Amino acid sequence: MNVKEVLQQFVEGATDLRFNNVEVTPETIHAIMINEIVPSHPEEDFYGKSDAAYMTTTIPLFKKAGIEVDSVQDILNKGIYITNAVKIPKNGYVVSKESIEESLPYLERELALFPNVKVIMLMGDVAKKAFNMISKKAIKKNAVPSVSTYKLRKTEILYNGIRILPSYIMTGQNILIEKSKFEMASEDISIMYGLITKQ
């Protein structure tokens, strides 16, 4: 299944929406990592060119977590799918609530493509916000409490039987500079991997 082809069917009219142009076998995916927003240039996204900017931080995080990967395909092969909450590049410094809302129906449809997901990682506040918007619509309340991520990291949060792991944004050079966030994000990835690999 090509994710972009599936989601493109629901788009009406001209749009800046960007979807992952990647072939995935939905049944093999057991964890989804939701990053904040698509980059300005599609080739810098997770499924873009081999040395894409988004992968220059993602691969070190996985390696720090003790998971040997060298490409996004290696990550997919381990049953982990990565996507962005917001499907439109940002045009200011902050991600607008409107762009989150515009992308939400597509993120919902995208998550629904994967029937065997055990863990959803929310990489950053935008991902947390977007996921809470989805849960508010479905169950009339936030799945993730509105408190700082570091306070939530050791909390067991479940949504429809899926473990939700709030963590830190995994892209942008800041993650490599902010050592404590890098450590915590890689620890969270390690927890996620443990949850999907234990039988």
Overview of the molecule:
This protein has 199 residues and is of the alpha/beta class. The protein has 8 helices and 5 strands, in the order αβααβαβααββαα. It has helices spanning 3-8, 53-64, 72-77, 97-112, 125-139, 149-152, 174-177, 179-197, and strands spanning 31-37, 80-86, 119-123, 157-159, 162-167. The chain has a 5-stranded mixed β-sheet with strand order 2-1-3-5-4, sandwiched between helices. A hairpin with a 2-residue loop joins β4 (157-159) and β5. α2 packs across α8 and α4 packs across α5 (125-139). The chain is globular and about 45 Å long. The protein starts with a helix and ends with a helix.
